[in-house]
# Entry
Amino acid sequence: MHNQSATYLVALFYFPYFYNMISKDAIFNIKSEAEFTAMALDIFRFQFKNNIIYRSFCDLLYKHPSEVKQIKDIPFLPIQFFKTHHVLSTSKTIEKTFTSSGTIGSKISKHLITDLKLYESSYLQGFEYFYGNIEDYVVLALLPSYLERDGSSLIYMVNDLITKSKHPESGFYLNNLEDLAQTINQLEAKGQKTLLIGVSFALLDMVEQFQFNLNHTLIMETGGMKGRRKEIVRQELHNLLKSGFGVNKIHSEYGMTELLSQAYSIGNGIFESPPWMKILTRDTEDALTLQQINKTGGVNVIDLANLNSCTFIATQDLGKVYNDGKFEIIGRFDNSDIRGCNLMAL
# Structure
């Protein structure tokens, strides 16, 4: 038997040893496509062995680690499983449960977190990868719909960014838009680098009441009207926000309850993932087939930080991946568009 295969088989039967082999340092120090692929395949084998829900899904597809040699061979778990099952690859104690927003009576997603340090490492190193040291920024958060409920992973992340920024002006704003406008203008006058992160409807509320001409502030929208306003396309949203805030670009964050990593757009609606996260698209008619780049399809995410839940997730988003690995989110499936639902019934 090949030495590497022998090592791997031993690791499978000695869970703590194998778990330690996949360290946080290794995940967040991916330097090449080859390293990403090797780590993804290792995590697939680990989760196949230790995640009951994912193993059952793979069994339904007759997918066994012996047959999975490339990323394209890996099954992607439909994201709806986070609404109906406990998706876990470890028996460690649950430290936190992140939940999605949902309409009354609808099922919500639950992401059971057994290692908050893993999540913290992901978003802190992700932010630094795209924007630099968090201490260089004042962080202002306009996230009323998230603050009004418990269990938001976005609130957890932003709250920690506010703390790590170490600026007394950093903080959350709910309905006190006048105070926020005053703070922004004061920071601008000092030439202080500032990040204003907000949900779309609240940012629109802001520019309908105040007019800005910002040179030192990044405006970052997290998407969604949350039922507060009529949904509009991203380009229209960004044009309104650019005009109101007096900026050339609107940044965007792409994340979700079921992921521990985020992708960012620096202003053109095109997102880039950190090295430990990868976006692929699947055929809209055949959910099990990955498709070529530059074609619109269902968004599949590989998030290596999801070590303790499931790294391979088929989302309900529609998107397109480009030659350089960057991607665009175009919309969402409605329920009637989802193919292969029979595979989701365990």
Remarks:
- The CA atoms of residues 139 and 170 lie 5 Å apart.
